[in-house]
Amino acid sequence: MSSVLSQDFFQNALLAGTFIALACGLVGYFLVLRAQMFTGDALSHVAFTGAMAALAGGYDLRLGLFAATIGVGLLLGGLGRRGQPDDVVIGSVFAWILGLGAFFLTVYTTSRSGSGQGGAGTTVLFGSIFGLHGNQTTLAVAIAGAICVLILLIGRPLLFATLDEAVAAARGVPVRALGLGFLVLVGACAAEATQAVGSLLLLGLLAAPAGAAIRLTDRPFRALALSGALAVGEMWGGLLLSAAFPKLPPSFAIMATASAVYALTFLVRPRRAARSVVIAAQRTAA
User: Fold this and answer.
1) What InterPro entries does the database record attribute to this sequence (predicted)?
2) What are the backbone dihedrals phi and psi of residue 214, each rounded to the nearest 5 degrees, phi first?
3) How far is CA 98 from CA 79, 81, 184, 196, in A?
């Protein structure tokens, strides 16, 4: 165990994972509050399609990840009302995106450049946080750190627009611009987190810490901070579990830890009434 912890691959995973988890915790809180988890689910599948498209074209998969998730996020927001995609829009795109991902996967695995490298699809689906190198780690920290800073900068007006859109617009809050800007951050977060836990498990890292935080406190900014802290703790716990039990894939260990923490919140306290949470958040936003 001690020998694993001292290895470069584990330290890179711990550093990058800390910032990625923090970004997911902060972004996930607003996704839950804005009832946009379906958007996060859709973008996780978009991440797979974008990565496969980039690989099929001979480009770095990160280019496809960010271009696809941010682009589709803006598209969904633009088709929705005031920058908020609705379920009909998302559902109309969802199946087509998955089919397109399967197509690009086939193109990549059957092409000359992708021959014998079909494992790249598995890596995108389930992540490879222990495979991050020095430059990749630095880039992951920089991008995730920027997402965290931007979320904190727009947090108060975004909270206001989330809880009372009409009043926020009447008071001059740029509701549509905030909605679109938030979707850009969601897309960037989805692209970055895909490298850690994979596109299939990404939704759990966005939803579980935020859901647990909302159950534990009805104060919005305290819940935001708690969501980020829980996500980081779950990332650390999952990485340590994977180091202690090498047969456990790190993405599975991270998601198992996140799910266990969320389940424990049902034992800590009874579920709060949704109305009390909204009222407290409205008072803070006002």
Assistant:
1) ABC_BtuC-like, ABC_TroCD
2) -65, -30
3) 20, 24, 20, 20
pLDDT of residue 273: 44
115 is written with which tokens?
């021959």
The CATH number assigned to the domain with range 2-285 reads: 1.10.3470.10
Q: What is the pLDDT of residues 9-40, one digit of tens each?
A: 889 999 999 999 999 999 999 999 988 888 88
The residue assigned the tokens 């998601």 is 255
Q: Residue 224's Cα: distance from chain center in Å?
A: 15
Percent of the chain with pLDDT over 90: 34
Alpha carbons 228 and 24: distance in angstroms, whole number = 7
Under DSSP, the state recorded for 219 is: -
3-state secondary structure of 21: helix
Count Cα neighbours of 209 within 13 Å in the Cβ-side half-sphere: 32
In order, the DSSP letters of 234-272 are HHHHHHHHHHHSTTS-HHHHHHHHHHHHHHHHHHHSPPP
**How far is residue 201 from each of residues 46, 50, 145, 253, measured CA to CA in Å?**
13, 16, 21, 11
pTM of the entire predicted model: 0.85
Measure the CA–CA gap between 207 and 255, rounded to whole angstroms. Answer: 11
Q: Alpha helices of the chain — where are they, by DSSP H?
A: 2-5, 8-33, 37-56, 61-79, 87-110, 119-126, 134-163, 165-170, 175-197, 202-216, 220-244, 250-268, 274-285
